[in-house]
Known about the structure:
Mean pLDDT: 86
Helix content: 40-55%
Low-confidence stretches: 269-273
Number of strands: 8
Order of helices and strands: HHHHEEHEHHEHEHEHHEE
Shape: globular
Amino acid sequence: MSFSDNLFKRLDEGRFLGLQVWEFSFKSLSREYGRAFLWKVVLRHPWRTLRGAFEYRRFLKRRRRKGGITHLFWEGEEDFLQKATAEEGILVGLGFCQKPFECPSRRPNHSCLYLSTLDLDQGEEWPHPICRECKVAIMGKKALAAGANMYLMTSALDIACDVMIPSLETGRNAILILCPLSVQAITLPLLICGIKGYLIEYSSGNCRDYEEWLRADRGVKEEMTTLSPGALEKVMGLLHLLASRRRGSIRFERQGNMYWPVGEPSTDGHASV
């Protein structure tokens, strides 16, 4: 370990200035995503950055984490869900590494054949046999019924450009499924950009260190990530609850790298899930 690595690791361990992302941030400065966040967020929005840093210090003191599930909001869970229902819904984001190896859309990208063809008014159709067992498809169907956006996360640069930077003005509610390593690294940027919600950790197949994370960020991921039964149940339960409180949609429309819910369900019951 180099002197700089050891220094920033100690800063993290001691929570210097109340922060715990020194090592990851230092390593990120030499990467395109790190420079993009620095120029487009930190330097252009210094007040939001400062406010996010104070919120992050508050988060570290009051962190609510259980069973690999972190609450990235301050109010009670019911109050947060009521707000998410009343506002513009919620974003469901999960890693491309959760796709099966046989995925017809392939893995290191934002595409999903099932989400592209899903239409709840037309009944259940499977564009490929592997979709029947794919958790992306299963969660996507629930998300559509809840009127939620779907986003398949690939690189940190894309996440910054597709999710974080567009949230600076209005904020965003989200359920993000990530490696435990990514949860630690992404919390501060999320708070700076006004993104609140749930951070759900993968229980297997996840990146164990920065070098593995960096390879995955480039699209090189030989493992398939999975959620624990409890975490999967939590995600599905949240989407079911939101679906019971919001008018869902019948299909997704892809705009850029994001899948947006569109269309109103018919009254014949096809859109219920």
